[in-house]
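Extended Data, record 2-oxo-4-hydroxy-4-carboxy-5-ureidoimidazoline decarboxylase
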Amino acid sequence: MTTGSTYTLQEINALSHDDFVQALSPLFEGPPWIVAETWSSRPFRSLDYLHASLCAVMYAAPLEQQVALIRSHPDLVGRAALAGTLSPSSTHEQSAAGLDRLSDEEIAAFSRYNQAYRERFGFPFVICARENKKESILAGFEQRLHNSPGQEIMLALGEVAKICLLRLRDLIRS
């Protein structure tokens, strides 16, 4: 999250439900159900406790809801990225990994991997781009294409948790 307001933890704890959802909804792609459900766990005594509370809601959700969360993520170097229609957070994260500076051959490789991955699992490949570069992301595609769907759901949720933590650190100031 590169733009917008930042908050102290005390300010987050004092927000109404609607304001809390609005402020924290950029932590996750898609509908803000995780944030909405986490509000009732206030007060949060630390950023780590807030993150753990958010992740607990995500991991406790029914499988269908978890898969819908994963499906809300954009493909890496996909149509939205190439068209410039990613969320500000996703744009920043893909840029940090160097995914906005690819050769035509690299774009084609990402396109092939995105398609193969979606065909195998039915959802996009999710990886914390801010913790990776294009080479490690491409290697991740190759490695993870051999996993079972259940393994990939758990790995993707783990990556969503990492993305959330980094976005949360951008949002909460000391």
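Summary. Residues 74-152 form a domain with the UraD-like fold (CATH 1.10.3330.10).
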